Amino acid sequence: MIEYLENFFSIKPPEAKLEEIIFELNRRYPEGKDPWGLDLKIAKKSLQILYPFYSNYFKVRIFGEEKIKDKPYMIISNHSGQVAIDALLISMAFSLEISPSRLLRPMVDRFVVGLPFFGEWSAQTGAVLGDRQNCMKLMEKKESILVFPEGLKGITKNTSEFYKLQEFTDGFYRLALSSGYEIVPITLIGCEEFFPFVYHLKSLAKSLGLPALPLMPNLFPLPSPVDIYIGDPISLPKNLSPDAPDKEIKIHVNEIKRKMASMIKKGLKNQRTFWSNKGN
Amino acid sequence: MLEFENINSILIVGAAGNLAKLLTEKIQGQYPHIKITGVDSRKISKLSPRENIHYINMEYTRGNFEKIFRENSFDCVYLLGRFAHIGLSPLKSLINQLGSQISGIKNLLDLCPKFKVKKIIVLSSYHVYGAFSDNPHFINEETPLKADLAHPEVRDVVEMDKIAAIWKNSHPEVETTILRPCNLIGPRIQNAITKYLRLKNAPVPIDYNPNIQFIHELDFLDILMMAVTKLPPDIYNVASDEFISLREAKKLVGLPTIPIPLFLFMPATKFLKKTLWSIPDYLVDYIKFPCIIDNSKLKKAAGDLSFKHSIRESLKNL
């Protein structure tokens, strides 16, 4: 067992790739830090430590990486898996497998920011409190943003709701309109199976002031293989104001949601079994 | 816009404070023709009397102020001190002092147009925004002032800022500028944050490490001067583009710290306030939570804004 764990944690990203990533991240963040708490040293170290989980535990595959060019994007994704491992895997994919490498800035819930140790670590690795002002400032600095338009409802689903997209908020679309960013929809397949049997005690969570209170038999995520599908970048209409009425924005938001639902449907057809290898 | 060459007389309220002393020296050094009148309700000590500097130790009453305004034709007023120093007072005293603060600033401001003052510079603080776990980064000047919701002891600063902001809009004939600087530090500044930074074995959160902005006392003096000559009357956050994490700041100062979990931070500092850690309650929140201000408005108004002292250098020399 100890030997297995030693072998597991000794898995490293390919040396040449790692050097390329470090070079690119040093170029992007010459000071190594930013006001939101990013700490490049810790972000790089975390990438290396978590790589065995990314590569050999969740066996992440990425499809459509060639669609991402050397410019900032607003990445939007379905939210799944009860805990925000999906955000971590997407961020790692954009650092490890997309060229040029970049640190995505996931917009996270207030609850996450306030968690002891984890809140600090998430900020050091790039996460930022999901607030309109933060998002605008990050976009002014040409950072790529990761947004989950379903919000908490997406990640706190019961088993019966797995892979069903929840209602999208439209704030991300207004922010993209304000900044001129292209939106890239991505979908993750495999995260819902981390915790395959879940029931949320919604009323109790509310009365305790918690964002969610899931009941599930396993407390550690199961090794479900994860596929990340990158959709085509969506250019935004030039004549639509960021302050347009909800119904005008909603048309475009629902169109994106439909595209993502279709991507999920296709992805599920190719979903790997639990113990499959990376290639099948 | 005023030029110091054309200014004959300046009033500095809160003249006993170290920042006011530094400002007085700077103005006198560069523009010896300007007559400076410094007033404070506290005892003004360690000041070398000069021909063109007059200090008045007095109670802040309308009558006293009116007399000073009548006898001096001030071109410019720097409001650098509080009218009532609330500190850690009990509630009843706090209410009385807050009353003095509100009426004091209103009275002083009302005297300015009456006696043809051209420019007022009000020193507020970034503390007025409040430190909360869900603060966005880069708080701009339009953000609501919420500090007093959590800590009544900073209500005087919040009220002063609010009154000055309202007054400014209703008296366009007097150019009024409100400055909300980030943490002022420097060898001569004695405020809550410099005391915390100089505190041996000070507590720092073990599980959280917020970024903090600092500005050196001499850089802020430049801004105080610039507020008269260059900045259009308005409200400005004052900070450089630099920031530093709390733990790194304490490390640069070079004193040992005691790491404690965030949830114990407030109870521990409250419990040990009178013995080990003399840290005001409100400051604990600014250590616990982020409160980064947006300096873009100041940069736009100032044009070529540059700071001579880096945060790291300032902390090393604290």
Short description:
The complex is a heterodimer of chains A (280) and B (318). Chain A has 280 residues and is α/β, with parallel strands linked by helices.
Number of strands of chain A: 9
Give the helix level of chain A as a range of percent: 40-55%
- What is the mean pLDDT of chain B? 87
H/E element string of chain B? EHEEHEHEHHEEHEEEHEEHEHHHH
Q: Structural class, judged by helices and strands of chain A?
A: alpha/beta
Report the sheet-strand fraction of chain A: 5-15%
Computed over alpha carbons, the radius of gyration of chain A is 18 Å
Query: What is the overall silhouette of chain B?
Result: globular
Named at the architecture level, the CATH assignment of chain A is 3-Layer(aba) Sandwich
Number of strands of chain B: 13
CATH architecture of chain B: 3-Layer(aba) Sandwich
- Report the helical percentage of chain B: 25-40%
The assigned structural class of chain B equals: alpha/beta
Strand order of the largest sheet of chain B: 3-2-1-4-5-6-11
Strand content of chain B: 15-25%
